[in-house]
């Protein structure tokens, strides 16, 4: 009866090992730097938390804008108002940026009249 050889394990290539060792040993923050593989799970978790916070804020802004869209359009046309100020606060727009943003929204009012989603995007882009 012939003896069976045990299954052969796949071995990582020398290039992959070299890249991992290089990434683990190098320091610095230059653009060509490969990230330390040990830090990747932490970065992924941080990104997931950040995305969750952003999505929750965007959901609040979207719900508010859809509930008050006609009145917000009137306030934008008038140059501002309490509903627009609250919408900007929900989106995280810094107070010192709000007057400039109100002027930009007024200048582009045609984009927002029929599209609450476009207004959501405009506020979220300027939000923190």
Q: Can you offer a commentary on this structure?
A:
The chain has helices spanning 14-25, 40-67, 69-78, 82-91, 98-107, 109-112, 116-126. It has 128 residues and is mainly α. It has one domain (14-126). It is elongated, with a radius of gyration of 26 Å. The mean pLDDT is 82.
Number of individual domains: 1
Low-pLDDT stretches:
none
The portion of residues assigned to helices is 55-70%
Q: How many DSSP H or I helices?
A: 7
Distance between the termini: 73 Å
What does the main sheet amount to? Answer: none
Shape: elongated
Structural class: mainly alpha
Mean pLDDT over all positions = 82
Rg on CA atoms, Å: 26 Å
What letter string, H or E per element, gives the SSE order? HHHHHHH
- Strand segment count: 0
Beta-strand content: under 5%
Quick synopsis:
By secondary structure, the protein is mostly helical.
Chain-wise SSE layout:
Elements: H1 14-25, H2 40-67, H3 69-78, H4 82-91, H5 98-107, H6 109-112, H7 116-126
How would you describe this structure in keywords?
128 residues; mainly alpha
């Amino acid at each position: 009866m012939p003896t069976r050889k045990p299954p052969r394990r796949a071995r990582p290539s020398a290039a992959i090992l070299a890249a991992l060792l290089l990434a683990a040993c190098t320091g610095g923050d230059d653009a060509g730097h490969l990230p330390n593989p040990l830090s990747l799970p932490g970065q992924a978790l941080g990104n997931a938390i950040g995305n969750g916070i952003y999505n929750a804020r965007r959901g609040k802004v979207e719900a508010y804008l859809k509930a008050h869209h006609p009145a917000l359009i009137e306030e934008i046309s008038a140059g501002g108002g309490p509903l627009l100020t609250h919408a900007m606060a929900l989106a995280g727009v810094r107070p010192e940026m709000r007057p400039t943003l109100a002027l930009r929204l007024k200048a582009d009012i045609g984009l927002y009249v029929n599209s609450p989603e476009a207004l959501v995007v405009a506020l979220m882009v300027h939000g923190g």
